[in-house]
Write a structure and sequence with these properties.
The strands form two sheets. The chain has a three-stranded antiparallel sheet. The chain has helices spanning 2-6, 10-15, 25-31, 39-44, 108-112, and strands spanning 20-23, 48-51, 53-55, 62-64, 70-73. The protein has a domain at 1-77. The protein is α+β, with helices and mostly antiparallel strands and 120 residues long.
Amino acid sequence: MRAAYDGLDARTKVEIEDPVCEHSLIFSRAAIGMVDLTPEEIAAFKPVRQRLVRVHPVTGRKSLFLSSHAAAIVGWDNRATMHRGRRFDRNEVRDVRRTTLAGHAPIVEQRRLISPLHSP
């Protein structure tokens, strides 16, 4: 995550300096089908807020603090989020779901980056 942070452009680094992510073990487990939690487990795994960008206390080096547990960025709309890829048997049918929200359309420059195979 240090290398990922280092690779960001200066504008993005400024933009992500202050946001806080809500990390939830329940969220990440539900994403892979583990939904049968006891009330005790749910109470024990309450979401935890962590800064999106962390600074190492000794080196001062910045890094992203992201994982499959990052359920949301507090106060942001989450139209651009991480996904979790998992191994699958290519001979079996996959259940792929997509959510599209109403709102502002992508700008022209963003549309040029979309592959012709994946155009809206």
